[in-house]
Structures are given as C-alpha cells and as structure tokens.
Amino acid sequence: MRSNFLRVTTSRSSRRLPWQAAALTALALAVAGAPGSLARTATPLVALRGVVPAWATPQARVGDVADATLVDISLVLPWRDAVAARRLAWDVSTPGHPAYRHHVSPAEFRRRFAPSAVTVRAVQSWLTEAGLELGTVPSNNIYVPARGTARALELAFGTSLGRYRLRERTLRSPDGVPTVPAELARLVVGVRGLADEPVVIGGEEARDPFPVPLPDPPATPADSAPPRAVVYSAPCSPYDGAVVDKRLPPAHGRRQPAVVCETTVAQQRAVYGVDAAIKSRIDGRGQTIVIVGSHAIQTLPGDVATWSKRRGLPLMKPGQLTQLSYPSAYQTPNVEPILRPAVWSLQAHMLVENIHAMAPAADVVYLGTTSSLDLANGTTLAVNAKLGDIVMNGWYSAGESSNPASIAQISQAAEQAAATGISLLFASGSIGDNSGQGASPGPEYPANDPMVTAVGGTSLVFSRGGRLLREVGWAKTVANLTDGAWEDDLESTFRGSGGGISKVHEQPDYQQGVVPNALAERDDGSYGRAVPDVAVNGDAETGLTIGLTQTFPDGKTAYAERRHASGESATAVFAALVALANQRAKVNFGFLNPALYALRVTNPAAFRDPIPSRIPGHAGVRTDYVDGATAESGLKKVLKTFEAYQSNVPARGYDTSTGVGAPSRAWIGSLR
After folding, report:
1. Which of 211-225, 425-439, 491-505, 657-671 has the highest mean pLDDT?
2. For residue 208, is it within any domain?
3. Which of 145, 175, 192 finishes a domain?
4. Do residues 532 and 611 both lie within one domain?
5. How many distinct structural domains can be found in the chain?
6. Which residue of 38, 291, 499, 623 has the lowest C-beta tally within 10 Å?
7. Measured distance between the N- and C-terminal CA atoms of the chain, rounded to whole angstroms
8. What distance lies between CA 196 and its chain's CA centroid?
C-alpha cells in the first residue's frame, strides 16, 4: 500500500563527489552479477558507510528504540548520468561559457538524468519485501521514501537502532553499520532516516535549536501555535551609543549604551541599494522566492499585513503569499525531538517580512514540513517542481554530514536547481565556526555544498541621522547583570555567522584565486570548499523589528513586535537582493557562485569588506522582561558584545565570516 507521506566535487573535472566515492567503495565490496531476489539471504551484503553519526558512541547510548516505533527513511538514487548532469549545471552557471544562463526546463532535466522507472521499481520491491510502507516518489526519482517499524528496519538493514544522548536531546541512530544486498547497493547512494539528522535554526532564544519532543498524536495545522511572547522594555538607543545608563557597571572598560531600538526598513534598503532599485521599479515583480520551513503558520498572512501597514509598505496582494504543505507534513509521527511549531512560526514571520521589506512585489511561497527528513525532501520538491526562482533554506546541522545519501540529495538538488535556473541558498549557520558545539572548527551542512550559495551574517552600525558607520562580521556573546556585575551567560549559545573550510568537499574552481590558499588548505595539503560565499545583515540587535501573533503570560494571544534576526534572516535578505538582480537582468542567474566570485575580482566596488572595526569592547545593553513580555516579574539587563569572533575572523578580501563581502549599493546592478 502507498501513502502520500510524502563538482560538487567542486570543479568541473571528472573527480568524484564525496558520496560517489563512498558508493563506489561500497560497490567494490559486492559480488558482481548476483542473481535472484534482493532479499538479504539471497545475495552478498554491502556496508553503507557514513550512516552512523559521530555522536552515536557507546558512552552516549541511553537505550533501545522501541520495536513498534515508526521511522521514515529514504533511499537516495544517483542521477542516470551524473557526470553529464554536473557538467550541465556548471556550464549554464559559468560566465563566459557559451551555455551561460541557457537553462533547461525541469521536464528536460528529468528526461535526461532522472533514475529510470525500472530502478525505482527494483528499490521499491526490496522495501516492500522488507515489510515497509512505500511513500510517494518525486517525479525526478531522486529518492524512494518508505516507513516502517524500528524492528522491520533493523531486520532490513542488519543492525539494531539505539537512542543516544546529544547535549539536551535524545536521538536515534543505528548501533552498527547498516548493510544491504549487493544488487540494491548498485542502485542507490545510501539511506537517510535511520539516524536522526539534528537540525538547527538560529535565533535569539539560545535553547530553540534544542527543543523538547513534540507530543503525540501526529501534527496538524493547528499545531502552529504562536510562540511565547518576547517584547523588549525601554531604554533603547535611536542610533548607536545614543543612550547610556550611568547606573550600570562598566563592561570592557566603559559604560555601554542601550542597544538600538531598531534598524528601519529604509536604513536596510539604503545599505544594499534597494531604495534606488525600487525607484526604478526594480521591486521583485515577476520573481518568486520559496522558503523551505516547517508547519502551516496560520497567523502569517494577517501578521505580515499588520507589520507592512505599520511601516507604510504595500500590502501583499491576493496570491502573493502562498503556503503549501509538503505531502507528509501532517502524517509524520511526532516522536521526533527537533521541530516545534512555535519556533517555526517565529522563523516564518522573520523570513517573509524581511523578504517583503526588500522585494515588496516578489511572490513568496512558504513550504511547510514537519520532520528533518522532510526539510531536505521539501527542498528537492521545491526545485523539482520549480516552485520559484529562488529557493532559500534557513535550517542547517551542527557540523558537516558524513552520510553519503544526505550529501547526495542536496548535491543533486543543487545540480538540478543550477541547470534549471534556480538560485539555491542556505544559511551558513548562526553558531560561528561550530567549535562551541564541541566539534573542531568547520562549516555546517548543507551550506558546505559547493553548488549552493552559503549566506553569512553581518552587523550594521548606524550613527545619528541613519548614516551607516560600519558593517562588521556578526559574532555576539551574552552576559547577564547579576548582583551588580556582568556575568557570562553559560547557558546561552554563541551567535554569529557560520563558516569554515570543508573537510568533505574540495575547493571549487570559482574559489581558486579568490580564497587565500593559506585559508583553504587542509591538514593533508589539499584545499577545501570555503564557507560562506556572501553575507548581509543578520544580527538580532541590528536587524529589522518583526511582528507576529505571540502568546503572552496570561495565555492570551496578540500581535506584538520584537527584534529578531539571524543567519536565516540574512539569507532572506539576500534572496530578496537576488530577486531584484534577476528582475533587472531580465533573466535568472540561477547558481550564483561563479558569477559572484568573478564579480569580486572584476568589480570589487560591488562589495563592502566588513573588516574588524578595531573598536574594543563595542557592546549594547538590552532590557528584557523576565517573563518575556510584562513587568510583573521584573526586568533583567543583558549585555550583547559585538565582534566576539571565533576562528572565522573577517579580513580584507575573502574570509570565513563574510565570504567575498557584503553587497554594496552597486551590487544589484553589477551582477552579470
């Protein structure tokens, strides 16, 4: 029975992708031409390397996964001609190539490269024999979804499933390396879903990336409950340094001012040249930006209308904002400890409002899912169905994925996006170089893929009259005022632009000569893909104030506004800039990176270089309500320090905090 739950080696050479190398290693273990059924007992078995995450150690194991637990998986298939698909994606994306910007249709791409129906049926046959329920295969045949009990999956893949503790979460993983019949291994890259894929979305709340488990029964649209109310108390500064409370103790050698009240839409537009573009009727019309998110956000249309009206922005027209539910969105069992509807409500409002501020005539599609597996599948759906011209993702994992199937699904979605003229954007993350997560410094998955555009964050600093003083790399720490002294908030996660050098992906051609060799060189002497590619405003204290329906301490819900920004909102801002550049050029650029890096060389004035400001101890004091929204429980003072960089420190030229830099006022009209 079926249900509806529903180069990259980095140069255009013939070098293999990381997931291709792993698949070929697995195939080398198989006996060629084994006849008969794909059942485990009828053919040699092949190990699927990279499926067991690094965090699944014996010391972290806390128990078994119950036999009856339902688990969603996907078997990922390779393109029918992977080399040709990758070559096409590069050719149409490389300035100067005869095929540059001559994109193909999604139907043409599928005709040439989608895995065959015969291959899909063979994979489905094995899943059915294993006692699993089949899901809907997308029309590009890039993965075959299925669902079954933990016990059925243990029997199918030859390993038990365990529960493992990762910081504040309990996650699922195979206890040993999964195996599949050799004949099946020839058809697939690997499997996703046996192990949880920890998803992070950044934001002001330090513990949002590590939410509590969602309750049963499965999610419904009504689960998009408004988040806990957070509004801020006075004082705040109309511009940087304007208001100083002399009663507070000094920090970093001086008394720090109150944080700025807000960055206005007009200020952010002026920084990136959007004001001039809109005067020329370059406002995003004819462009569609797709946000891959989670859940249906019922208050979103009304809240965006209220927020826009308060700022004198045009209201979204009927049909300009569309919400779609990924086919499995409300059938996924909510034992997954990852995605809370309230968190995604905050995220969705932040993204849509930032897009509408910068590209007010662009259409926006919000694609809701409810599991980490579905976030990648939703990205595949958005690209394969060409739901828009730009597809943006604010989710990421804490570190690089080792699973060849997870790597392949994003890499292949990126290739299809590039070939068909879609810009695929990912936030580079909001946790800096990842060292605060107990790992070695490096970038996050999926932003580490060389065929996606990874967007980092900056902080904007304005003086009196709204003049931009400087744009610096986003890197913030938090301290609380306790007993008359500033004490570091040990429970708060560092917030800053994600970046680093990939250990998984090699350096792409477009980064050669732009990324310093000393930065890109890895321990083995090879060169890795550097992240991010570009950066724009993503600091909660310097981003736009957003508005949404929130749940107040008395249990009532009401519209209210608050400061909120992150690497994800930076990605939304950049998505809007891409929409404006596409409209101005009268053609979609698609995969941006080759043109982006070429522009950095040929026209440096198209970028600002957010180098360190050399202003030690620049910080701001925020006044919070203890209960989030009212004075009943009192106030607390929070010190937010700028430019508290980890290893990814901004520098002149390319760096792993801001990439090639921040778009200047000239950027929209300079991209070629």
Report:
1. 657-671
2. no
3. 192
4. yes
5. 2
6. 623
7. 50
8. 17
